[in-house]
Every structure is written in structure tokens, then in C-alpha cells.
Amino acid sequence: MPALDKPLWLLLTALSAGLAIASAPWALGQPVLNFAFKPLTTVLIIAMAWPRGRATPVLRRWVLAGLGLSLVGDVALMWPQEGFLPGLVSFLLAHLAYLAAFTRVQRLGARWLPFAVYAGIAGLVLALLWPGVPAGLRVPVVLYVLALASMAAQAAVLWRAAPADAAARRLALGGALFLASDALLATNRFAGPLPLASLWVLATYWSAQVCIASWLAPPRSGG
């Protein structure tokens, strides 16, 4: 199976993501494209990750679990009302799976600065959006934000522990992009419509997933 760095695989993923984004009313306005290509894009990222990380099977299992749970969340969120809470739970579990992988390399909170920075960002986002969050969703949203911010912060911990490691840099970028994507999604849902929301939310989301998948070591030649 092609690895992440194979141009054709990246091209297919970008094309699928573009078609999913273009399903929005401001573009082609064809919801069927979203139902077909939104899950397909995440499946393609899972396929990219699948041959990677064979030398670190525990990390590989947790990252693949995170990607699989993200796929479940993607499908749930195709129904924005009925699927919001199941999608939220799926992505919360995905962040915990990623966190389990990252803490196999560095203990949780091994460096305090990334956690302080992300706690401040998460607190600011929550404070800004809190008035628009329905009472019944406030506890799940707080738990989700804690998991997301911890995942992003721990990704940054791994980068700060090995600043010259390109994979660790990509991982830290992935954590930051995931937080940005979810902040945009929450703003669009709880504060008011954003222009071209699906473009910004999905582009940052899939970029984050590619960065996280690419943290796993590529397969050996011929593997």
C-alpha cells in the first residue's frame, strides 16, 4: 500500500477533501458529495497511516484508533443536529486515543509551557462561546475541550523534547490545527455563521489528521 509521502495518495486525498468541501451551499451545493467524500477523505488518511509505525506497534494502534474514531465522528456530524453529541463523544475518544499514543513517548505534561499556553487558548475560546452553548451540552463541551487542549499540548511537548525532529514538528502542528478547526466549528455553531465555514473547518481538520498520521514512521523500502 502506498505510504503517506506518495504523491498519488496525497493527490487523491486532496481531491476527495476538495469535493467534500465543495458540497457546501456556497460552492456546488450538492450534499451528496459530502456524504460520499467526507468519510472517504478520512478513510484515505487511515490508508496512508496503515503501513506506517510498524516498529512501534503500540503507538500505531493508538493513532489508528484515533483515526477510526474520527471517522465515526465524521459520519455522525453529517447530521448536524442529531449527530452532534455522538460526534462530540467520538472525537473526544479520538483525542484520548491520540493522547495515549503521545504519552508513550513523553509523560503527560512533561513540559508545563505547552499546557499553560493551550489552557489559556482553550479558556479564552470557551469564555467567548459559552453564552451560546446550550445548557445540556455544557458538560460534554467542557470535557471535549479539556481532551482536545491536552492532546494538542502533549503533541507540543513531544516537539519541544525533540525540536530537530521533523515528525515531532508535524505532530505539534497537527495538534494546533485540530484545535483551530474545532474552534472554528464551535464558533460557527454557537456564535454565528462564519463565511466559508466548511472550507476553513475541514481544511484545517484534515491537515491536522495528515500531520498526526505522518508522525508514525514511514514503512521501510519494500515494506
Search tags:
globular; 8 helices; mainly alpha; single chain; 70% helix
Question: What is the secondary structure topology, with strand pairs?
Answer:
Layout: H1 7-21, H2 31-49, H3 57-76, H4 84-102, H5 112-129, H6 138-161, H7 166-190, H8 197-213
Helix pairs in contact: 1-2, 2-3, 2-8, 3-4, 4-6, 5-6, 6-7, 7-8
Description of the structure:
By secondary structure, the protein is mostly helical. The chain has one domain. 70% of the residues lie in helices and 0% in strands. The protein is built from eight helices and no strands. The chain has helices spanning 7-21, 31-49, 57-76, 84-102, 112-129, 138-161, 166-190, 197-213. The chain is globular.
* Discrete helix count: 8
User: What value does the average pLDDT take?
Assistant: 94
Uncertain runs are: none
* E-strand count: 0
| Beta-strand content bin | under 5%
Instruction: Indicate the percent of residues in helices.
Output: over 70%
Largest sheet features? none
Shape: globular
Order of helices and strands: HHHHHHHH
Number of folding domains? 1
Task: Give the CA-CA distance, first to last residue.
Answer: 9 Å
> From the structure provided, what is the oligomeric state, counting identical versus distinct chains?
single chain
Radius of gyration: 17 Å
Short description:
With 223 residues, the protein is mostly helical. The chain is built from eight helices and no strands.
